[in-house]
Amino acid sequence: MRQTLKLIYFNVALLCVLLVGLEIVGQIAFYLWKGHAVFRAPVVENQGVLELDPYLVGRPRSSIRVEANGKVVTTTPMHTRWTGAPANPSAVRVAVVGGSTTFGAGVTDVDSWPARLQAMLGANYSVINFGMLGYSTAEGIIQTALLVPETRPDIIVFYEGWNDIRSYHDSTPSPDYYSHGMRQFSTLQLAPPARPSLPEQLVDISAIWRLATVVSKPAAAQQQDVHARSYGPAYATPDTFVDRIYRRNLETLKLLSEHNGAYALFVPQVLNDAWYSQHTGGNWWTPHVDDHAMPALIRRFGLTMDAVCGPREPRCSVLGTVRDWKWQPDDFIDEGHFSGKGGEVFARLVAPKITEYATVHHLVHSSGTGP
Q1: How far apart are CA 46 and CA 61, in angstroms?
Q2: pLDDT confidence tier of residue 370, bands split at 50, 70 and 90
Q3: Alpha-carbon span 326 to 308, nearest angstrom
Q4: How big is the CA angle at 150 (ends 308 and 80), to the nearest 5 degrees?
Q5: What's the mean pLDDT in 339-355?
Q6: CB–CB of 94/128 below 8 Å?
Q7: Phi, psi angles (nearest 5°) of residue 20
Q8: How does DSSP classify residue 338?
Q9: According to the model, what pLDDT value does residue 251 have?
Q10: What are the domain boundaries of the chain?
Q11: What span, in angstroms and rounded, lies between the C-alpha atoms of 26 and 8?
Q12: Helix (H) or strand (E) holding 15
């Protein structure tokens, strides 16, 4: 009997060791494959770059330079990312507003598309990069109302879409993208006012702890938890509620631009269609949108932007040629963020529209380089 108990204890202990070992090996393998833990979103690269913001969740710190993995992120005293803009008081001021692709996630300073745009436009132009990780049109409205006017922009470029479509088919739809805003604390890895408890953090780290938590819960609570944490269901259909909010927000951005006396140039979001065509189901950024359907949905989403500016409006236009360009997989570093090559192409598509407006309205006061 005693021998049998020893054998049982040994087998239980061995099973526990094997489970822990399996988890460790699995977590390491998954991290090497995906770059983040199994139950956590990908790590934001820009550690030390960001700080809490009372209205926008997070923003870039002021006047810092961070170098990691061969990439440099430099910010200005205005909490914007460096573009190489000259100290020219008579320069045409171009503010760019958008999400992580505008910020330049995953690329070094000089490879962000606003920096490429600045290099093309030359010393008679000053490009200010207000782009920020995860910012949607909701954050863009706050920026354009409170921050962008301080730069007295002549032109505001809005590159929007990907972060708004993230709210498609949200289980708790809200006109202020509430769920998206709350998820930004995790995305930006900035601590919200109330930190999760140790058991809650362990659920996001350990498969064994998660399993134990699920087993210990009543059936109803298990179902609720699975629904809250799963990526699915993922839909291939539009969300007319988000479409309406997106259109409303774009019109608000247009009105804010007019109020600031600036020309509003709207640019529809483009993504790496080749990446999405190879995936199905939702992913961590757009959990309720089927990846395979994303190229068609984001193009349809862009048509909402097309309707914001009238055909003869002097201070508003949509640059649809960006959407029509034949984008290649190497224009991106992942499913949607530009590589240095893609940023160069994007800037070359945007630059002529800016110089055309500046020339027609006699905004350039001295000779200089241009595209």
Answers
A1: 11
A2: very low
A3: 24
A4: 85
A5: 98
A6: yes
A7: -65, -45
A8: B
A9: 98
A10: 1-35, 50-169+236-360
A11: 26
A12: helix 2-34
CB 122 within 8 A of CB 368: yes
Tokens 């309707």 found at: 307
Average pLDDT for the chain: 87
Query: Quick one: tokens of 186?
Result: 């995790």
Helix axes 137-146, 240-259, angle to 10 degrees: 20
Q: Which two tokens stand for residue 10?
A: 């040994």
Rounded to whole angstroms, the Cα distance separating 290 from 281 reads 4
pLDDT tens per residue, range 224-239: 343 334 456 899 999 9
Domain 50-169+236-360 matching CATH 3.40.50.2300: the answer reads no
Buried b (16+ CB within 10 A) or exposed e, 319-354: beebbeeebeeebbbebbbbbbebbbbbbebbbebb
Q: Are 104 and 113 spatial neighbours (Cβ–Cβ below 8 Å)?
A: yes
Cis peptide preceding 314, ω within 30 of 0: no
Quote the CA–CA distance of 213 and 209 in Å, as a whole number: 6
Secondary element (H or E) of residue 134: none
Q: Do the bridges between strand 92-98 and strand 125-129 make them parallel or antiparallel, or are there none, so unpaired?
A: parallel
263: its two tokens: 């020309």
